[in-house]
UniProtKB/TrEMBL annotation:
Family, similarity comment: Belongs to the glycosyl hydrolase 65 family.
UniProt KW Ion transport keyword: no
Protein name: Family 65 glycosyl hydrolase
Species of origin: Mediterraneibacter gnavus (Ruminococcus gnavus)
Superkingdom of origin: Bacteria
Domain Glycoside hydrolase family 65 N-terminal: start-end pairs: 18-279
Molecular functions per Gene Ontology: carbohydrate binding; glycosyltransferase activity; hydrolase activity, hydrolyzing O-glycosyl compounds
A Gene Ontology BP annotation from the UniProt entry: carbohydrate metabolic process
Domain Glycoside hydrolase family 65 C-terminal: 711-771
Domain Glycoside hydrolase family 65 central catalytic: 338-702
Keywords noted in UniProt: Glycosyltransferase, Hydrolase, Transferase
Pfam families attached to this UniProt entry: Glyco_hydro_65C, Glyco_hydro_65m, Glyco_hydro_65N
SUPFAM superfamilies the UniProt entry points to: Galactose mutarotase-like, Six-hairpin glycosidases
Length: 783
């Protein structure tokens, strides 16, 4: 990781601007400027469709949840190894729009470009490109292209393409294309995967151009899923809208519309292109064509300006709660806005889709969903966009049956085991030591769910779905371990992998045991709540799950007797039973160029036998359940793990920052925070081309709110322990807690808590109970 990089883009709080088009930075910039609404994801590629190669660019259009599947070849397959892959599939591109200006094709690679500015307007959720192009023959044209992926219309992406001839009058010919000859860049984006998707994986079923419309329908070769997409075009010339100027062409794998109009000097011509995607995952495939036609018609009727207006409103609403401002620090402000913008736009919102570790910004990690969603992203969305958080939890509920099946494969007669990596709900991880063995995913989901319930007070969710998830996840914990005589009858869980991926298949991973215990506790609490308040619901659920009272008794016994590895000399919790036995790590023996890429350069056994760690593990558990440990204890553990953690995962530094804040190591906290705040914006890991690091992006919010401001919600108690980094004068954020919107402003000497919306709010500041009962009222605490 290189954190000494200069800012890549000019430092501006709300915008990301590229001032020059350079091919060598294109691949990375495509991720920076990617747009999404949680359903459609599109990379920041150009309408001109430049022929980039595998190292310089990737045209990418994705639909959340839509995947291709192939048979996975193993050298030696284990029982229960997933046999079919799931990879987010790169779909036909409809953004392509080529423009011939008085016979000369617009391209930033010919002629001269002046005043180039491509801006991601994060406040508005719109991407804009402006430039003046001087053609090789000297014709000058002003060009402005805006793009959005609509939050108001799930299936719609809209483009506004404006051209204004500056020093000539002549023909303007626009060719809008549907390009279905598309492929994933698997060799580049997922180099260790050898099962594809390679080559074109969609079999065209329908492809046509009709009046002002283009339409495509195709089926994947492996997963046998149908995707449909189309576009509709409207052109405005000098105040007139023309439709007779359209000509159509259809080839085997592409179709295009040619629009020919007269360009008057100084007069703007604009094209509004609406693009729509849908898939068989949302409706019977016979209905797709009709659906796309209707959606396109509606979107066209609304028009680009209205869609943009709605986009702004949607974003305004988001920022109203989610914005964090740091007075006088545009540098960090920009990083925070960038992070929040990307996680917000990437989250699935329909209850049937989750959120990829890379959002919908690229093909990295095959588009898989991991625990990143529950442990990093959800704790942010729960306080800022609880409705979106709920739909992400819905996705886990939606896939609960697959998780039940998976638990059976793993030998558990009861309960559900969620997949480590997935799109469709089935396990997609091919290397079980770093995959299925990460059983903690079950407890992570339960943790996020419990946090959601505590923060929102959404009891109906507990009743309808939450209790079932808690019980089914808990059941696996009650089966996977045993009361071990050699550990004085304590409950031990062997052969799991904790969050740390350099210590795998370990016994009694501290994080896993802790989170499992809390999962069991939450499940018991849910049952008790239902018994007391919704007896009928409980009886029904109990019958459906064939739940036996002895199970609850056994859970209680496990909770009381959970085993935790403990080092009596250092008085710390080693990551697992074998951690202290492993060989000390000597970084000096590793050549610098190999240090951050251990799995690429060393055998896994070499890595696993050393006493070091890739990412926050035990201390993550201590942060999440900080109420169960004394500050002194956390400090001892932090001091220990600080020395042995290499932070080779982007999920690590933000957690260390939060823990450092909690124990008063403010300088270190700030250092860690600085490593995470602009990690993607300045591409510290040099791999941003493959997509965002959603977990770290969300971790930045946590590092401020849970870190510097010390916010926790444990046992339904909302608490703050505010601090402020030396470098800052003031910072402000807002959270939603049980329908109350609370503004928290922390400056050098005081913390101010103001109730902005809602009836009242109760919280604790440094152990003192505060209640605000009037809107607009502020409580001030000296710090
Ligand atoms: C990390 C995991 C994470 C995954 C996806 C890996 O490098 O070790 O914790 O879930 O990346 O972000």
């Amino acid at each position: 990781m290189n954190i000494d990089k200069k800012p890549i883009y000019p430092v501006e709080a709300w915008d990301i601007t590229e001032l020059e088009f350079k091919k060598e930075y294109n691949y990375r910039n495509e991720t920076t400027f990617s747009l999404s609404n949680g359903y459609i994801g599109t990379r920041g590629t150009f309408e001109e469709a430049y022929p980039f190669d595998i190292d310089t660019g990737l045209e990418g259009n994705f639909v959340n949840g839509f995947y291709e599947s192939e048979h996975i070849r193993y050298g030696e397959a284990n029982f229960g190894s997933p046999l079919r892959s799931q990879s987010i599939l790169n779909l036909p591109n409809l953004k392509e729009t080529k423009v011939l200006l008085d016979g000369e094709m617009f391209s930033m690679e010919t002629g001269k470009v002046r005043g180039y500015k491509r801006t991601l307007h994060m406040k508005e959720g719109v991407l804009e490109r402006k430039l003046i192009w001087k053609s090789p023959k000297g014709k000058e044209t002003e060009i402005r292209i805006c793009r959005l992926v609509s939050f108001a219309r799930k299936n719609i992406m809209a483009i506004l393409y404006e051209v204004k001839p500056l020093n000539y009058t002549g023909e303007v010919r626009i060719v809008s294309k549907l390009q279905a000859d598309v492929e994933n860049h698997t060799r580049k984006t997922n180099p260790i995967v050898d099962y594809g998707p390679f080559g074109r994986r969609l079999e065209p079923k329908k492809l046509y151009a009709e009046e002002r419309k283009l339409y495509y329908e195709g089926e994947t070769l492996g997963s046998k899923l149908t995707v449909a997409c189309g576009s509709i075009h409207k052109i405005h010339t000098n105040g007139m809208t023309k439709s007779e100027a359209f000509r159509q062409r259809v080839n085997k794998l592409d179709a295009e519309l040619e629009i020919c109009v007269y360009g008057n000097m100084g007069k703007k011509i604009s094209l509004e292109k609406m693009i729509c995607y849908s898939t068989e995952l949302d409706m019977p495939k016979e209905q797709l064509e009709r659906f796309i036609a209707d959606e396109l018609r509606h979107a066209e009727r609304e028009g680009y300006a209205v869609l943009e207006e709605k986009q702004k409103k949607y974003m305004e609403n988001f920022w109203k709660t989610a914005d964090i401002s740091i007075k006088g620090n545009e540098f960090l402000q920009q990083g925070i806005h960038f992070n929040m913008f990307h996680i917000f736009q990437s989250a699935g919102r329909d209850g049937k889709t989750g959120m990829g570790a890379k959002g919908l910004s690229g093909e990295g990690y095959e588009g898989h969903y991991f625990w990143d969603t529950e442990m990093y992203v959800l704790p942010v969305l729960i306080y800022t966009e609880p409705e979106v958080a709920k739909t992400l939890l819905d996705y886990r509920y939606y896939t609960l049956d697959q998780a039940r099946d998976r638990a059976r494969v793993l030998g558990h007669d009861k309960g559900a085991l969620f997949p480590w990596r997935t799109i469709n709900g089935q396990e997609a991880s091919t290397y079980y030591p770093l995959g299925t063995a990460q059983y903690h995913i079950n407890a992570d989901i339960a943790y996020a769910l419990s946090l959601y319930l505590q923060v929102t007070g959404d009891i109906e969710y507990l009743v309808e779905k939450g209790a079932e998830i808690l019980i089914e996840t808990a059941r696996v914990w009650a089966d996977v371990g045993s009361f071990s005589e050699c550990k004085n009858g304590k409950y031990c869980i062997c052969d799991v992998t904790g969050p740390d991926e350099y210590n795998v298949l370990v016994d009694n991973n501290f994080y896993t045991n802790l989170m499992a215990r809390e999962n069991l506790r939450d499940a018991l609490q849910a049952i008790n709540y239902l018994k007391k308040n919704r007896l009928q619901t409980w009886e029904k659920l109990k019958e459906r799950l064939k739940f036996l009272e002895v199970e609850a008794e056994q859970w209680e016994k496990i909770i009381e007797n959970m085993y935790f590895p403990y080092d009596e000399i250092l008085k710390i919790y080693p990551m697992d039973d074998g951690f202290m036995m492993r060989k000390p790590w000597d970084e000096s023996k590793i050549p610098p160029e190999k240090r951050a890429w251990l799995y690429e350069n060393y055998h896994p056994l070499f890595i696993m036998r050393h006493r070091m760690s890739k990412q926050a593990d035990a201390i993550l558990g201590m942060y999440l359940h900080s109420n169960l440990f004394s500050e002194e204890e956390i400090r001892r553990n932090y001091d220990f793990y600080q020395k042995v953690t290499l932070h080779h995962s982007s999920l690590s530094t933000c957690i260390f920052g939060i823990v450092a804040s909690g124990i008063g190591y403010l300088e270190e906290a700030y250092d860690y925070f600085s490593q995470s705040a602009r990690m993607d914006l300045d591409d510290y890991h040099n791999n941003f081309y493959a997509g965002i690091h959603a977990a770290n992006m969300a971790g930045t919010w946590q590092a401020i709110v849970n870190g510097f401001a010390g916010m926790r919600c444990q046992n339904t108690r909302l608490e703050f322990k505010p601090t402020i980094p030396e470098e800052w004068d003031e910072y402000t954020f807002r959270i939603l807690y049980r329908k109350a919107l609370l503004k928290v402003k922390i400056s050098k000497n005081e913390a101010r808590f103001t109730l902005l919306e809602g009836e009242n709010i109760v919280f604790y500041v440094k152990e003192k109970e505060i209640e605000i009962t009037k809107r607009g009222e502020t409580y001030v605490q000296k710090i």
